[in-house]
Design brief:
about 50% helix; flat; single chain; mainly alpha
């Protein structure tokens, strides 16, 4: 749905409808469309990244029953 032109096959829609139900499929489609619009608007206006990281490096919790003295 994010490609230009959009390419969403019937098989994918059928699988999503089965897994999510009709209402959730419509909600998912709407949210993808909103995010696409926001992304294209930002690009057209020359808005760039606000310094957020590409990935969130959340430390793994210590294993249960062991003490982690490094924190």
């Amino acid at each position: 749905m994010s490609l230009t032109p959009p390419e969403v096959g019937d098989e994918l829609v059928d699988r999503l409808r089965t897994a999510l139900g009709e209402k959730a499929l419509v909600e998912l489609t709407t949210m993808v469309a909103v995010e696409n619009m926001r992304s294209r608007t930002n690009s057209a206006l020359g808005l760039t990244s606000q310094g957020f990281r590409d990935q969130c490096e959340v430390p793994r919790p210590a294993a249960q029953g062991t003490a982690d003295s490094s924190h």
